[in-house]
Write a structure and sequence with these properties.
alpha/beta, 7-stranded parallel β-sheet, about 15% strand, DNA-binding
Length: about 750
DNA sequence: ACCTTTCTAGTTTTT
DNA sequence: CTAGAAAGGT
């Protein structure tokens, strides 16, 4: 052990050797935080503490797996609990389900399930989902749950008309979940937090988990904060690690104040700062620091590294997203020539939809890539159907699941029949499965419908006999006996069938990995999959992911695309200083993933919802010095490529209509755009982009979809908006916000 | 009951 | 643009 300590810095050693009492580790990016946590767990065990008494809470399952492996490498006894907040909650709620007043095999509802349930709830209390959109309601409800606020408390706070209605929906939704034997993601946390108010149970858990570690503490919400506090209430052996500068989940209730106030919560806490960076070149670190310095609400941290200098960070400009995508493949290929492997490269973007043009370009360039999006697979229709069947097997009260599969494949059970069954369930107050098993007692049903429902119930009952088999087996028989297999095999699109095979594989994998496999546990596990869980370091391919999913990872080469106003920072984050700072932290997280090579890129126009819009560079670029600016001086210009459309549509093709041709031209690289024009105000001196300039200049001819042709009279911008005054040919003179105006730049 | 067509509304980030 | 819901026809 001493030998292991010797490899750590003084600060790291302090954190590792601290045993009893609260500990806060403020760890800058790349400062060896994971190393500290794993060493600390090893050290605790080495000191004679039983692994069983140690609980480490990570942010993703992936992180938990990795940590488990790294601790296993110390060759110490195993048995520590390492998991996420959500899976900890799911486990404990299952274990103590009676105390929590839950069925043992509750369902866990994902986004779509939640929407369906809240929709049903809204209708049930005779409100129109049109006026109370499920997604919006869920946002509000989620916020409540994160703050441990009950419907009654919400109603007391929001006394306005709409607030009262939302409170009713919240309450009806909870009732609906209860009736379905289901919990949503937020419920998992909320129920655990509430459970911990029971002193008997809390004492028991305090005794079990005598040492508690919480990673990424800056991203805990109030509920998680209460859980952490409750779990360590008696012994106070709470170790929180994190970095306020990497707090990027404020939008889902994370409270950066939790980490900032740790010292107030635990006045006797030992504080350790890890400021030496072992990951990035001085250039990368310097850029990150320049960016994050602009945030006002933060704890100043001085990051430093003793790594040797690398190459300058780059900023690259492109014509549009397709151009940018090809810029990406070029860059990746040039790095490959410099002896980097593809698996050492990553591309980050702000929103998932930005991956499309990238994928296309990567396929065309035959560069292997993986999209790190774990949840996507489980959102496919056929997979959701299969999971709904499986859920139904262990929880027949699950109305959302039942509704989903009762008529898939079609069994002649339509909406009317389903409606009547549910109505009966609601009015009689009986469990759904009781009604299904005694379908003759539903008076409103036609005989034919009864027969069909009975047939369906027989299928489910038959499947339920085999629940003690391996999960792979259960999934396979379910696929067969429900008729899903014949349905999907008859489809000329083979993907759905292949996907179910993939699901079978995942079940087999689970059977292998788990000590005591059960369908319930398997379902719980896949319900809590996160995007980053899909990252495969061994795959040998370039990784594509959102900036959020990039947290906790590192790559020798990193490209961040779409560094534009409205994207980074995102348009929905512009209205408050706090959310703007969070966007800055998000970019900070992205930048600090890079070990050696870092490039940011942006496009001058980007297709948004079918329309190509002129963009503005991100204002975050303004404060950055020392970026090596690469303009795309039409490296992709190819006049041979100009097909017959070019001449015919020349005046139009400079405009939005360009994008209409795009989806169809797989082989043709999208026709490009002529010579680069000095469309920026100060192109000449932008070697380090010191200002956020736009691609317009006075007197420029433009076209607006509504107002027609016009000329730019003046341009002005503040931090958040860029306004242009345009004199239109119709006589109108308008001031337009570039963010919204769909302007085409004409010659 | 079910299929097709039409329309409308919603578009950040995620456990 | 695209997915999902309402509407209308068979």
């Amino acid at each position: 052990m001493d030998e292991l300590l010797a490899k750590l810095t003084a600060a790291q050693q302090q954190a590792v050797t601290h045993i009893d009492g609260p500990l806060l580790v403020l760890a800058g990016p790349g400062s060896g935080k994971t190393r500290v946590i794993t060493h600390r767990v090893a050290h605790l065990i080495h000191q004679g503490i039983r692994p069983y008494n140690i609980l480490a809470i990570t942010f993703t399952n992936k992180a938990a797996d990795e940590m488990r492996q790294r601790i296993a490498a110390f060759n110490l006894p195993r048995g520590s609990t390492i998991c996420t907040f959500h899976s900890l909650a799911a486990r404990l709620l299952r274990e103590f389900h009676e105390k929590a007043d839950l069925p043992a095999d509750f369902s866990i509802y994902d986004d779509a399930d939640q929407r369906s349930a809240v929709r049903d709830a809204t209708k049930k209390i005779e409100l129109d989902p049109q006026n109370f959109p499920p997604a919006q309601m869920l946002n509000q409800i989620s916020a409540c749950k994160n703050d441990l606020e009950s419907p009654e408390q919400f109603a007391a706070r929001r006394t306005d008309f709409r607030g009262q209605k939302i409170a009713l929906i919240y309450s009806a939704y909870q009732k609906q979940l209860k009736q379905n034997g289901a919990l949503d993601f937020d419920d998992l946390l909320m129920k655990l937090a509430l459970l911990l108010r029971d002193s008997e149970l809390r004492d028991l858990l305090n005794q079990r988990f005598r040492y508690v570690l919480v990673d990424e503490y800056q991203d805990t919400n109030h509920c998680q904060y209460q859980i952490a506090r409750g779990l360590a209430l008696n012994h106070r052996n709470l170790c929180a690690t994190g970095d306020p500068d990497q707090s990027i989940y404020g939008w889902r209730g994370a409270d950066i104040g939790n980490i900032l106030a740790f010292e107030q919560d635990y006045p006797d806490a030992k504080i350790v700062r890890l400021e030496e960076n072992f990951r990035s070149t001085p250039q990368v670190l310097d850029l990150a620091d320049q960016l994050i310095r602009a945030n006002k609400k933060r704890k100043i941290k001085k990051l430093f590294t003793s790594l040797p200098p690398g190459s300058p960070c780059e900023l690259a400009e492109f014509e549009d997203e397709y151009d940018e995508a090809r810029g990406m493949t070029d860059w990746l290929q040039s790095l490959k020539e410099q002896n980097l492997e593809y698996r050492q490269m990553a591309v980050f973007y702000r929103v998932n939809s930005m991956s499309r043009p990238l994928e296309e370009a990567l396929r065309r360039a035959t560069i292997p890539y993986q999209i790190v999006r774990g949840v996507e697979f489980f959102q496919r229709k056929e997979i959701k159907d299969m999971i709904a069947y499986l859920r139904l097997l262990i929880n027949l009260s699950d109305q959302v699941a039942l509704k989903r599969v009762i008529n898939r494949p079609t069994r002649g059970i339509g909406q009317t029949t389903i409606g009547r069954i549910f109505d009966h369930a609601n009015s009689s107050g009986k469990d759904l499965w009781q009604i299904l098993n005694n379908i003759d007692q539903v008076p409103t049903l036609a005989n034919a419908a009864r027969t069909r429902v009975k047939k369906f119930v027989a299928i489910i009952a038959d499947l339920q006999k085999n629940l003690n088999q391996p999960v792979r087996q259960i999934v396979q028989t379910t696929y067969k006996k429900t008729g899903m297999e014949s349905l999907l095999k008859a489809d000329k699109n083979e993907d759905p069938h292949d996907n179910v095979c993939e699901l079978v594989n995942s079940a087999a994998q689970y059977d292998n990995d788990s000590e005591a496999p059960s369908l319930a546990e398997y379902l719980q596990q896949i319900a809590l999959v996160s995007d980053s869980d899909a990252y495969d370091a061994e795959s040998g391919s370039v990784s594509l992911m959102t900036l959020h999913a990039a947290k906790g990872l590192e790559f020798p080469a990193v490209l961040i695309i779409g560094v534009e106003h409205g994207l980074i920072p995102h348009a929905r984050s512009l209205d408050s200083e706090d959310s703007l700072e969070e966007e800055r932290r998000l970019l900070f997280v992205g930048i600090t993933r890079a070990q050696q090579k870092l490039r940011l890129s942006f496009a001058r126009r980007r297709t948004n919802q079918g329309a190509s819009l002129t963009t503005i560079r991100s204002e975050f670029l303004r404060t950055l010095q020392g970026l090596d600016f690469q303009q795309s001086l039409s490296p992709y210009e190819d006049f041979n490529d100009a097909d017959e459309f070019q001449d015919e549509f020349q005046p139009i093709r400079r405009n939005n209509y360009q994008s209409h041709h795009r989806p169809h031209q797989w082989n043709n690289s999208p026709k490009k755009s002529k010579k680069r024009r000095p469309t920026s105000i100060d192109d000449s001196q932008t070697s380090t982009s010191t200002r956020s300039d736009i691609n317009l200049q006075p007197n420029q001819l433009v076209r607006h979809p509504k107002f027609g042709l016009g000329r730019v009279k003046s341009i002005s911008s503040d931090r958040e908006h860029c306004f242009v005054v345009i004199q239109f040919n119709t006589g109108a003179r308008k001031t337009l916000d570039l963010q919204y105006a769909k302007l085409d730049i004409l010659d």
